[in-house]
What does this fold into?
Amino acid sequence: MKMWMMIMYVTLAVTGGSLLYLINRVGKFSVFQKRKKGKNVFGAVVVLGAFALVGVTVNFINAIVCAVYFAMIWFVSDLIFSLIAKIRRKPFEKNYAGAVAVFAAVAVLSAGWYWNHSVRPAFYTVETDKKIDNLKIVMFADSHIGTTFHSDGFERHVAAMQAQNPDMVIVAGDFVDDDTTREDMIAAVKALGKMETAYGVYFVSGNHDKGYYGARRRGFGERDLEAELEKNGVKVLKDEAVLIDGRFYLIGRKDFSVEKERGGRRKSMKELTASLKPDKLMVVADHQPADYQNQAAAKVDLVLSGHTHGGQLFPFNRVGKWIGANDNVYGLEKRGDTDFIVTSGLSDWAIKFKTGCRSEYVVVEVKQK
It folds into this structure.
């Protein structure tokens, strides 16, 4: 809790500094320079007006993102043009630094909006010494139904995933959000239940699937979601392992938030693997990538996670790892005999931009060496 309070205070301070910097820089444009006494007033009207507009039309988290990006890019542009002016030994007559900054910031945020809303497949191949033949897994996480897309949009993503002809599908948490409606949840689950695979569709919960504001706000609780999933043929795994086709295990874990935020307990990797045959492939679905040491020690073969949204925003996309909240934020990592994959997710929670990654679902081919 102290860490998140610190992050909140830092965010507020950075936002305030960014807005003050932008107000000062906007006032440097020639159209405001003619009104020297009121140039910062005009700058404040432009900057705070734009900030409020984004806050009202999208949300204030995204208004903060836009303000910080504009300030960062403008600062870099000021440094570059200041250096050029020193080299040429002559100041610029017009505010080229500001013009370039505005253009670059709009371009970066536009790309970030597109990368967040445009879903692509990410392909991985992992090899094992264990007898498995070939196994194709489609995994997705962080769909947060109702944020970037509703059930009809999710149905289109399901069709794209189905076109990969997976042997099985794993939903690695945060399928829904606190703002997902009951109707949207039911329709999205029905779309998920229509997927045709050899071994089925499996689900493990994430922190948002449980809900932070109670069932009354969104019209359903975690148990309602699980019941709907089971009704549509989706197998919900809660700290349990299933042997599939006599060939490999799928281990589905309760989310780490059960312990971290809700005072509960989940089984350790040692407990989950104690009775499993070590000669068979072991795949783990665990929403948060936060238990790599124990998973590697248990000698599971593949761990699939989400939660981090791929770090989402450059240059802050490694912060989760730096502060110890996550063992990794995106991509493939190997520790000992274990391959770990973290996806950037199908969607977002509140921030509508991805400047450090793209929205995706994951296609993993497991091959025998």
